[in-house]
Amino acid sequence: METYDINQIKAELETKGIRPSFQRLKVMEYLHQHKNTHPTAEEIYAALAPEIPTLSRATIYNTLHSFSEHGLVNCMSLDGIETRYDMWIEHHGHFRCEKCGMIRNFPVKLGDLQMDGLEHYEIKHRNIIFTGICPDCTNQTKLEKGDEQ
Ligand SMILES: [Zn+2]
Ligand SMILES: [Zn+2]
After folding, report:
1. To the nearest whole number, what is the mean pLDDT of the chain?
2. How far is the CA of 124 from the centre of ligand 1 (A)?
3. Which of 60, 87, 108, 146 could bridge across to 93 with cysteines, CB 3.0–4.6 Å?
4. Start and end residues for every CATH 3.30.1490 domain found in the chain
């Protein structure tokens, strides 16, 4: 779990002109604590609802939408179905395991990418997604096959 400072989060929201309400701070805190899992709105709701009885799904969605509009989180869809939220603002790629669904961040140097033909396009999101099988699942398959290596 990463260390973070609630006052820092508060200041961050205020700089962006977002009123740091209790619920917004809680959502931000959750995102900071779950930087590596790239949670969905539903997961955030399920985690925070028991703690905040007044919380509604609409609040979660609106909060995430406003965070994303202000560049505080990235939203992305790795499977084309679920939208996931990502605290990692720096450019990075994602690897998603087709077997267990784990998502791993990896650093990407955007300068190394060729993007010919997009000169006149306004780029809003850049997602680099690799899919495949993670080492854990590869080892699991080997074990199941009795492959001793
Ligand atoms: Zn896996
Ligand atoms: Zn990420």
Report:
1. 87
2. 30
3. 108
4. 93-149
Residue identified by tokens 């899919």 is 131
Encode burial over 122-131: b for 16+ CB neighbours within 10 A, e otherwise. eeeeeeeeee
Q: At the top level of CATH, which class does the domain 93-149 belong to?
A: alpha beta
Q: What ligand is nearest to the CA atom of residue 88? A: 2
Selected from 1.10.3860.10, 3.30.565.10, 1.10.10.10, 3.40.50.150, the CATH number assigned to the domain covering 1-89 reads 1.10.10.10
pLDDT band at 1, cuts 50/70/90? very low
Q: What's the gap in Å between 96 CA and the centre of ligand 2?
A: 10
